[in-house]
Amino acid sequence: MAEALEERRARAALARLMEPSDWVGLALVAALGPVDALRVATGSIGPGRELEGELRRVLDRQAGGAQQSLLGDALQRWAPRVKDLAPERDLATMERLGGRVVIPSDDLWPPALADLELGEPVCLWMRGDLDQGVPALNRNVAIVGSRDSTNYGNSVTGDMAAGLVHRGYCVISGGAYGIDAQAHRSALAAADEADGVTTMAVMACGLDRYYPAGNEDLLRSIAARGIILAEVPPGSAPTRWRFLQRNRLIAALAGVTVVVEARWRSGALNTAHHAAGLGRPVGAVPGSVYSANSAGTHRLLRDGSATCVTDATEVAELAGPFDATGATGQQEVLADHDGLGVEDLLLLDALPIRQGVSIDKLAAVAGLPARSVLAGLGRLESRCLARQDGSGWRRARRP
Amino acid sequence: MAEALEERRARAALARLMEPSDWVGLALVAALGPVDALRVATGSIGPGRELEGELRRVLDRQAGGAQQSLLGDALQRWAPRVKDLAPERDLATMERLGGRVVIPSDDLWPPALADLELGEPVCLWMRGDLDQGVPALNRNVAIVGSRDSTNYGNSVTGDMAAGLVHRGYCVISGGAYGIDAQAHRSALAAADEADGVTTMAVMACGLDRYYPAGNEDLLRSIAARGIILAEVPPGSAPTRWRFLQRNRLIAALAGVTVVVEARWRSGALNTAHHAAGLGRPVGAVPGSVYSANSAGTHRLLRDGSATCVTDATEVAELAGPFDATGATGQQEVLADHDGLGVEDLLLLDALPIRQGVSIDKLAAVAGLPARSVLAGLGRLESRCLARQDGSGWRRARRP
To answer: SS in 3 state form for B268-320?
Structure first.
């Protein structure tokens, strides 16, 4: 118990010391475990002779750059933050916010994060309806996109998120304006008492603040009825680096990532590329070729890194077998000529609509022998496509 | 010369006798040549003992169905039309219309049709600006789509067709309402004196009529300044079978086929599938997920049979190396942070915008050693991204 607490405290401190995806720091944790890694990182114990080699081995670096000390650089990088370390204060802050620090040995830890390998976060800070647990990978769909979304993008997002929640999925997004907010909002609105967690917001800043400020009410609702989580500790500002790294968490937590709208350059594309890198399916929503907000999704479709998705059913297909509703996509509507052979098709087209004609005339018009015309008329009649009256044979319409 | 005339006359007659893609008829031509094939087809010479076996060999049919005579059935199929054969009249009609019958030995014959193998038409009926010749496969792009197109589809079609003509391509379509008409119209409007043939209409009916009637003016313009062509002889009505077969000609004549708008079921999808079957690239234009007229193009994108294309440049990329304009697609716009390393990115985000700060403060905020902060500030300053004043270091904006 004391040991578990010590690990939790160490991971919380490491999260404050290191930026997300600090590879040397993560290699240090992998080599020594979090408690000793923190001691080395803060200078309270020396690194030991073998450590530099061990880190290079974990990071798969060649000895070529050996003049440069990976660990020495890292220690200098972390040093300015050592004096401000106060993991107990951070743990207390989370408790006050009704949240916790989650570490890999906890039940709440999402196993899917292991796919990030060395890039797995040292800990997660979480608030929200944690008793329900974090939904499993195949129940999570990320919906991401432009902050300055269009009405079109908002409509698609709203329909898609609601449709996914109705099918039992949880909608993950980044809590930003535009597509993200619409996805969270619609997922909350579509939630039923029985649904469990229907939406999770993965933040690029500490959970003690609501960012962006304009989404405060929405983020409060998610913190109450869904889950908000971050890799960075309370008090952390949302920097560009943290946004980019946050995107990898969204991609790793979701079984499928869908980009609804994205400009030619967009953070949502970064999330999509993380997802593709993890081997997770990526969906992209098509839109007008004249909309700058669809240029990025079309780019994903064009370069083959995403599948075209137009509704929740198609997203659920990408997500795989979790869908239990048996809902189907676009229904095939049978046309008159479906299932007809070539001869019957020729005959059908040869049949006049108003005035009936003779078998011989039909044979000449359709280019068929009279024998085939007779047999074909029988088949068409049985399908209610041809009928005979005083004037001869003519077209009938299916009832 | 007399021999060439005899072949032309025979092919013209065969085109009237047989529907497009009449496999037994085409095998007969392959086995005996057009002149003798016509004699057999009309009963003026007997089929000979070996012919049935030869046809089966050409058609790769097993002897299993040998009780049924392929040729016997075909002869009965053709018989009702024999008495109306008048190839000289059809040749004269074409001459009167300023057109001709084109056969495979003619210079005008598009070599690309050979990719249809046995399905290559026995002849083509052509009208228009024939002295310019039929553009080569890699200069032809087919643009097809819904007859009941939306304003959106019409706009995309117009922009795309004009852009392709400006790049030196010829736009092929089917002369129908909607996307087809828009493609032809825009290609004619974009034509310059020097451009050669900029549009070709492939018809499902005889060239003695303009079908549909509402496109008469447009089709007259194409017949004057472009090319209209058909596989069926003058006087032939546009039946469903002929439309479907016409689609294979569009696909075979074009180096790329683009579907702009198509419903879930649409003739344009048939053209796309013909193109894919011939190994020709297919492009599909994305649109609103709420538009029934884009359901078919999204279906193509989703099942992987088409590449997402949003403008003429992207179509030209699909078409390959013919594009000589050097026009490029969407330009990359460089952002402030492009090309920065991770440390410089962290530093850039740590720089305050208004009030300058010290190196030590920057080191703590960015999580970098002071040495790296100094070096990084130098790099950012040289890119005009950082500047120093009395209060310390702060962010600058690129000029």
So the answer is: HHHHHHHHHHCCCCEEECCCCCCCHHHHHHHHHHHCCCCEECCCHHHHHHHHC
